[in-house]
Amino acid sequence: MAEKKQKQKPKAIIAGGSIAGLSTAKALILAGWDVVVLEKQPAPPTGNPTGAGLVLDLLSQKIIQSWLHQPELLHTVTLPVGIDQKQGTDKQKKVSWILARDENSNLRSAYWADLHGLLYSTLSPEMFLWGHLYLSFCISEDKTSVKVKAKVLQTSETVEIIGDLLIAADGLRSSIRQSFLPDIKLRYAGYCAWRGVIDFSGKENSETVKGIRKAYPDLGKCLYMDLNSEGHTTLVELMYKRFNWVWYENQPEPQLKDNTATIKVSSEMIRAMHEKVKKGWVPEMARLVEETKDPFINVIYDCDPLTQIFWDKVVLVGDAAHPTTPHYARSTNMAILDAAVLGKCLDKYRGTENLNSALEEYQSIRLPITSKQVLSSRKLGRIKQGLSLPDREPFDPKKESHEDCQVLLQKSVPHFAEPPSILDSMFGST
Fold this sequence. Notes:
This protein is an alpha+beta fold. It contains 11 helices and 20 strands. Strands 6-5-14-15-16-13-18-17 form an 8-stranded mixed sheet, sandwiched between helices. The protein has a 6-stranded mixed sheet with strand order 8-2-1-12-20-19. Strand 10 (146-152) and strand 11 (158-163) form a beta hairpin. Helix 2 (19-30) packs parallel to helix 4 (112-121). The longest helix has 30 residues, at 355-384. The N and C termini lie far apart (44 Å). Mean pLDDT is 93; it is low at 1-5.
């Protein structure tokens, strides 16, 4: 009986079934753990209700491919983005010019739901408790286990789950983080992002699509960013004939009605947005934005870097560990790297008796890097939006030197695509 107990796998409870939660589940299973994932959504998403695109850096690509039985499957849901180009735009003349260009960016673009679906396909459906809202946790008196309470939304009953580790993958407004760090507040960045994805399948020869490809000739292999003196836009093509665009607008902090950073928009708000885009950006971009169904607003937040991301039997990953602005495309990439490093640390220190050592190493590897990246992204966001900074004048694309514009490129973020040594075994000798 004792021998059977000794062989029992340790059990992790993951609060959150987004990309951070799924990545962590995969990494822990490979480390020899059993996993339960709690997610309030009633079922696996077939499409992202807020239709967002993202880009994966080379390190994230390699990590995901190491998790797949067929690594090439990643290429079935992503497009290669070898070029990262930043452009200045003249609001009056509606012309653009190159500020900085990297032709070896090694990025890949993806639609959120496609990447989520790929990760979900590698996991056993039995480990997911859909429609379960995380409520609370408590650590046992002897600190050998953690008990989590969740509400079954369909029946309103409360269930309890006991495990060896609780992993907070519950996002930007993490209630688990809040229980340890009640004084940590999110910081509004000073601007919001209008976002949209347009499906152009069957419309390849439309004036809108031909116009956008003429204005952005490397679209399909390039991440474009346009900057004027008051903000910026991004544009990238996704798999399955879709364009993803974002427009960042400086504005006072909106009043949010619930625990989300996404705002549902009215037709009046959309019309006003269309008029502003027409005034500030090239007509081809304005037409694309105008033809996009169901655009939405993300309110942009981050928070000052944390000094601790684990406590006894609880650890933070993804946006719960490091809320960040999106300007170096860090959010998803940091979450994937968090998951991989946590999995390798738990694999290195086998068994729950060494759990503290594993979590200490995870924190020591990730915290210094994510802290630098959060602060770099914060600064870059203010530069791109023409906002004030203590060490420089507001950014004006008409006045900046070529050297000064290099900071705009993805590769300028600290530790860009640098694998920590604990991941060496994932990639062999390469």
